[in-house]
Design brief:
Strand 3 and strand 4 form a beta hairpin. The protein has a three-stranded antiparallel sheet with strand order 3-4-5, with no helix packed on it. Strands 1-2 form a two-stranded antiparallel ribbon. It is 55% helix and 5% strand. It is globular. The longest helix has 26 residues. Helix 1 runs antiparallel to helix 2 and helix 10 packs across helix 14. The chain is built from 17 helices and five strands. The chain folds into two domains: 176 residues, no CATH class; 234 residues, Intergrase catalytic core (hpI Integrase, Chain A, Orthogonal Bundle). By secondary structure, it is mostly helical. GO terms for molecular function: DNA binding.
């Protein structure tokens, strides 16, 4: 990244993955590291969450760079940010990190040439007006607020501040927290257009045709890659799992006799060599496997996975084609990228999570066919997805099914009203 800041994940001897924010020299930044250890890791948050927090902190430091703000000096004087600076911070939190890094690089370059930052802003080419989704911007602002509050409280906890400065810093911290809170965007926007949904049955059929190992349109040449990717798509589509859950499945988790697989939670597993360990964010659970999916899985294990010597050194089901090491999250991302780029018949937004939405659409349709009550459907879905029994997450995953049912009812109602009017004429 042009800024020099980056978040690196290190693996401790215990197997724990610990993200660390590095400065421009590649060294861990002291304050962000202590903040992450005490305020995030200390509350038993997952490594992924720590990484998200540190990227938010990185966005804040990029903001300080672009405005040439000495924040430690501000704290020492009892000041933090002006109202205008909070407005600027709010706007920048809506931008991708790569664009913030570019802004930071421009300001640093300008400073090194002793050119005014305002002149650089006037002469610089306008950046693309791309924005992150409101939920991401909101998350950044919340974590930045927490970081600012922590920095201020940490300084107040030490001796050396004059009483007047300490009082001023306490008041300013409260003001900044309230000011940031008032500017946090509402993630639950009324505009639901363009939000992620499942794909149609026709698209599912086309996807299965393309990834069939014998299909002439299969985008992969290597035999192991073809069979592994086909099986991976089947697991995502037929079981509705998250990518992290699929990549965490071990051969020993599958019980052929009972036709079941256990989805475990194994955070910071020392037996997992991947730096970015795939995580199971949901509850552990036992899922049934159909005869067809079980047969495909066993065939892959016996005929393809077993042929890779390195695969014998670990128990993870899905492995890399060349090394035999456990398949990574990046490899799955590449899989879907290749599908989108090489198969024009598939939607541009196809991803593993879209298949999870697709499973939920199919589940809703099947429960409708069975005449299940809404409560029974909710309980069954929550178990299979690994959600809390009281979770309302299903509303996120059933948009397409709900929209189609609403469309069907609306058309029926329109026909009924039109026919009634004709009868009155």
């Amino acid at each position: 990244m042009p800024s020099g800041y980056r978040v690196k994940t290190v693996t401790l001897s215990s197997g724990e993955r610990l993200p660390v924010l590095l400065d421009r020299e590649g060294l861990p930044m002291f304050a962000p590291t202590v903040f992450a250890l005490t305020e995030v890791r200390g509350k038993n948050r997952a490594a992924n969450t720590i990484g998200i927090v540190l990227r938010s902190v990185m966005a804040f430091h990029l903001f300080l760079d672009t405005r040439d703000i000495d924040f430690n000096g501000r704290i020492a004087s009892g000041e933090l940010l002006s109202l205008g600076e909070v407005e600027d911070l709010t706007r920048l939190c809506r931008r991708p990190l790569s664009e913030l890094a570019t802004l930071s690089s421009l300001s640093k370059s300008a400073a090194s040439k002793i050119v005014s930052l305002e002149k650089i802003r006037m002469n610089a080419q306008p950046l693309p007006l791309s924005e992150v989704v409101p939920d991401v911007a909101a998350s950044r602002l919340r974590y930045i607020r927490m970081y600012i509050e922590w920095l201020a409280m940490e300084r107040l906890s030490r001796h050396g501040l004059a009483p007047s400065v300490a009082s001023k810093l306490g008041d300013t911290t409260k003001f900044i927290a309230e000011t940031i809170n008032a500017r946090i965007p509402n993630g639950s926007s009324r505009n639901t257009l363009g939000q992620r949904e499942g794909v149609s049955e026709e698209t599912v059929a086309e996807l299965l045709r393309v990834v069939d190992p014998h299909s002439p349109d299969n985008p992969w040449r290597d035999l192991h890659t073809r069979y592994r990717n086909a099986l991976l798509i089947h697991w995502l589509l037929y079981l509705g799992l998250r990518i992290g859950e699929v990549l965490g499945v071990r051969v020993s988790d599958i019980v052929p006799y009972h036709k079941e697989v256990t989805i475990h939670r194994r955070a910071d597993d020392p037996a997992d060599p991947r730096r970015y360990q795939p995580q199971t964010k949901t509850r552990a659970r036992v899922l049934p496997i159909s005869d067809t999916l079980l047969a495909q899985t066993q065939a892959y294990i016996l005929n393809h996975r077993r042929a890779l010597p390195q695969a014998k050194k670990h128990a993870f089901l899905f492995v890399a084609s060349r090394t035999g090491q456990p398949m990574t999250l990046a490899a799955v991302g590449k899989l879907f990228k290749e599908l989108r780029e090489r198969c024009p018949s598939l939607p541009k937004g196809l991803s593993g999570h879209v298949l999870r939405h697709t499973w939920n659409d199919a589940f809703s349709k099947k429960m409708d066919e069975k005449g299940a009550t809404p409560e029974n459907e909710r309980q069954a879905r929550s178990y299979l997805m690994g959600w809390s029994p009281t979770s309302d997450t299903a509303t996120v995953y059933t948009r397409r099914h709900v929209r189609n049912k609403a469309k069907e009812v609306s058309l029926d109602l329109q026909d009924q009203l039109v026919n009634r009017r004709k009868g009155d004429e």
